[in-house]
Hints:
The protein has ten helices and five strands, in the order αβαβααβαβαβαααα. By secondary structure, the protein is an alpha/beta fold. A five-stranded parallel beta sheet has the order 1-2-3-4-5.
Amino acid sequence: LRLTRHAKKAGADGALLITPYYNKPTPEGLYRHYKLIAEEVDIPIVIYNVPSRTGISILPETVARLSEMKNIIGIKEASGNIDQTTQILQLCNITVLSGDDSLTLPIMSVGGKGVISVVANIVPADTAALTRYCLDGNFEAARKCHHKLFPLCKGMFIETNPIPVKTAMKLLGRINGEMRLPLCDMTKENENKLANILKDYGLTY
């Protein structure tokens, strides 16, 4: 709550709020958590559901309840479960954004509106093209984009995210690649694998 207030005061356009981790709150606890923040801070809020990181997945029914709050406008859905997205969209009209690049096409095919992307840091135009094709209903072109992007998307997780994307941007000369502990440099073996993925994509020679 304090940090979301600070974000608004600092001029943020919105807040991406991850589900509370470690203590595994009940659905009612999750509802009250987000409801309190939404009531106390008048800023657009996007829920972030990533159970592989937090140990908790927010239920579609809880998302539907929260969607009634005027400033809870979306959910970044990174559960890896298409059923979850489908159930959310059957229950409410909240904006669902993919939180997993390799699932952007499937999520958008059932009604998702876009992606909060890792791989867009490397290939923003191709990522934007995929979402544009989906929104336009051109799923044949979207599938071609998806299959082109897929190896690169998977390459972003050969070690813990964001190590691969930072390493890729270092290899492309865009950043210095410095990691802050507890993140550390990628192993040389994996860096070589990543370099080959970038080369196969046509990003390096």
